[in-house]
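Q: I'm writing up a methods section and want to include an example of the input and output format. Could you take the sequence below and give the corresponding predicted C-alpha cells, formatted cleanly so I can copy it straight into the document?
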Amino acid sequence: MKNILDLTLSELKEQLAAWSEPKFRAGQVFSLLHKGYLVREMPGVPASLAKKLESEFLCIPPEIVSEQVSKVDGTRKYLLKLHDGALVECVLLFAEYGATVCVSTQVGCKMGCRFCASGRDGFVRDLSAGEILSQVVLANRTIRGDGFAEYASRGLHIVLMGSGEPLDNFDSTIRFLDLATCADGMGISSRNISLSTVGLPDQIRKFAEVSRGTNLCISLHASNDEVRRQIMPMARRFSVAEVVDAAKFFFKKTGRRVIFEYSMIDGVNCDVAHAGELAKLLKGFPAHVNLISLNATGGVLECGKELKSPPREVAMKFMDALIKSGVSCTMRKSRGADIDGACGMLKLRKAKEE
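A: Here is the clean output for your methods example:
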C-alpha cells in the first residue's frame, strides 16, 4: 500500500477526481497532510473522504519510539518506527540561522565507511519519498508546536545526511525534493536543502540534471586514493579525481558551489602534506571544504587502527595550511554528540538497548 505522503498534488487531484470530490479538496488535504495532521483529524475534511483515504493509502505516521534532547545544545534526536517495524533516526538541530532537520534516506547503509556508525549493521531497505518527508513533517510540527517560534519564522533547513546514501535511493530522493519544495505543501526553498553523498560520480552527474537547485555536499575525507580507500571501502570503485570531476560537472551544470566534507582523523588524513594534496586537487575550482573533527564511533581500519579525532592543534594546523594554499574552508561545530546525534553517529543505539 502506498504511503499517502508519497503522493504529489497532481496525483492526489487525480485520485480525488476519480471519487468525484470537489476540485478544492485535493489542495486542502495536501496542505493539511504536510502540516502534520492525521487523515482522520483534518479540519474541514468530511469523515467519508478520510475513510476512503485510509482504505486506499497508508496513512499511519511513524511512531516516535524515543526522543533524546542534548543537554549541551538542545539538539533533538528521534528514533522512529515505520509501518513495517523498520527503525530510522532523524535529528533536529538549532543554530543562529534557524532550525535544520537531518533526515535519513535508507534504513541502514550499503557504503560501509569505517568512521560512520550508520551502516555498521548493514542495509535493510530504501525509504519512500513519503517516509523521508515524514521526518521533515515531524520536525516542522515540533518547531511550530513546542515553543520554537523564532526558528519557525526563519524557515526550516533540510540536510539529507542521516542514515543511507541519498543517491543510492535516487528516485525516492528526487520525489522527496519535489514534495518538500512544493508551494502547496511546506514550500521549503531548494537553497535551504543540502544533499550529502559519499561521491558516486555517475549519480552526481545524473543529479546535476535534476538537482532542483539543491546544494550538493560530497563526503571526500581524503586527499588521495590510498587513504580514501582505507576509510571508505566503496572508494575502491572510483578515484578521488573522478569524484572531483563529477563535482566540477555539477557546478558547471547548476552554478551551485559544491561543498566537500572532510572528517579529520588523527594520523590518517590531516597532516600538512594532506593539506597540500587537497589544495592541489581543488586548485581553480570554486568549492568549499567543510572540516569536521571526527566524532568517535568505535570505527577501525582493516589493520586494526582505531579512528580518533585529532588534537585541536593538529586540526587547526591542517585548516591553516588549506587557507594559506587558497582553499575556502571552515571548521564545522559538532552538535548533538552527547546523544549520538552528530555526524556519523546515527546507529539506533536506543533500539538495541530495548
